[in-house]
Amino acid sequence: MLYSETMSGEIKIWVQEMNAYHMGHLVGGSIQLPTEDEEEITKFMEDLLQKSQVATGESTSGRFQIIKAENMPFKINSTDDLNDINHKLQDIEFFDEDELIALTAFLEDSTDFDSAVVFVNNQEYRVYNNCFEMEDVAREVAEEKNILHGCTPIAKEFFDYTAYGEYLEENGTYLYVSGNYVHLF
Predict the structure, then answer these.
(1) What is the C-alpha to C-alpha distance for residues 185 and 160, in angstroms, rounded to an integer?
(2) pTM of the entire structure?
């Protein structure tokens, strides 16, 4: 599975025609996605097929495999359809960094892509940035909910954030995504 955890920069996908490859020829190319023009994808695939037929001297139906994906915000398989990938990228093209982090968390939680997009659009999550352990999340939650309000400074100093983090994790869905925790509602 090929992906990157953020949608930073342009997304490029390198595709190889496998019939030519098995005959000893490297026939492939890259395409930038998402694109509004689906004809661009069709033309790209037709060009690869034509190059394959020229390289091998044989007519082929075309078996394409994704060999590299750069800056992909979600996992793809080497045999995924470029049009499907393009549609998914269009769905999330304007997501900010927290939304992409949340999307990754929903997908890691075995949510299908379309449902994950709906959950993100409905803001059914909370991202805790720069939290590397549940103890970090517990500190943020305690501060947000003001749970130590009225406690003496000594009580605040000895509050067990590790235990509170464990409690939060046992009673909710928190997923770690590259330096952030995401609470799924």
Answers:
(1) 24
(2) 0.79
